[in-house]
Amino acid sequence: MTGESGAPPPSAGEHRRHGVARRASPVLIATAVAGGAGYVATLLASLRLGQGSFVSFAALWASVFFVAGTFGGWQVEITRASHRTSEPRSLRPVALTATLVGIGALGLAVAWTLGLSFVHAEPGLRGAPAVAIAGVGAVMLGTVAGMAAGAERWGTLAVMLSAEGVLRLLFVGAAVIAGAGFWVMSASIAVPAVVVSLVVLAFRRPLGLADIWVDGTPRELAQRALATIAASAALSAVISALPALMTMRSSSVPVSVVEGAQTVTQLLRAPMVVVALALQGFAVVTLRTSPQAVKRIPRVLVALVVLGGALGVLAALVVPGLVSAVYGDEKEISSLLSAALIGSAALLVGVFLVAIALLALMDHRGYAAVWGITAAVTIGAMLLPVGFDPRLTIALILAPACGMGYGVRRLLTHTIVTEP
Known about the structure:
The protein is an all-alpha fold. The chain has helices at 12-48, 53-70, 72-81, 92-118, 128-150, 154-177, 182-190, 192-202, 218-238, 242-245, 255-278, 280-288, 291-295, 297-327, 335-360, 364-382, 388-418; strands at 82-84, 212-214. The protein has 17 helices and 2 strands. Strands 1-2 form a two-stranded antiparallel ribbon. It is globular and about 65 Å long.
């Protein structure tokens, strides 16, 4: 049957695709705003801070986002468990579990910074207060953001994402321009999530967060969140903590080489990965309601591998010259490492996709295992007794390949079992 123009009416699939794009748009825009704000803050720091000082800034930034990213697993589980409700219900189980998770965040902050201090890596124990604040803020923001995402309040979620990014840019920008010391600089990175969370909680009714129910008792939430938090800890080690891991066993490596790798990671690689990170909640909601979408994931992964290869070649040709033109002799990077840093970002997106698909299928152990394997291979490769560029290249390529391979194998097992 056709319409008045003679054209066939849109199919159900087209309606579904248009609906997905429309619902994802606010989150994508907010991700662009937050990512752009982080990009500008990092760029400003790389241009204004002296050589050596940026290493400390990058390691502190990475540590803050490592711990905050770890407790992004709490947000992922709250997203999966949240639904709209027509009857007001108590959120006391969520609040109780969030408090316990927040205490865990404080413990991880101390353990992480103590570990860095032990291996003489930045920022060491002096970064503990900022990292602890960031961990608590991540739990607070993860609770309200996860509820908004699970109930498909995409506009509210977009406001939170963009507000946190813009606020951090304002704080960090002011600290860098004023030449602030370490403690002010660390606070400027860590506190935005806490501020945004408090504002959202104060205005939860007008923001549409008063009619949401989270499934599960505190015990059930804690058990499931433990798997997603473990996965996010591994994820953060691979992504957020990478600039800090670069300082391991690098005392004999020229500062310009380490800073070059950190700069490219934060200015060129991070914006590519942050989109996948921000869309985790949307992907969980979409895949839990569309089993057919899960079956198309292997084909998408093949396309991502091809894309990664193309981006790697382009980066090898462009990035070293770009870094030299902008920073002169202060920072440098090889073609090999440029290709690995940029090309492997597409592989990481593939790991995101296959892991989220497993979570949507309620396979919490599989979700944790994918990121656990990826992180273990990354850290293991960083300890290899080879040069800085080779060990980092091996870590960047081999780790996501192993994680993605395991995830596909487990996902195919689910698909085979659930087929009639």
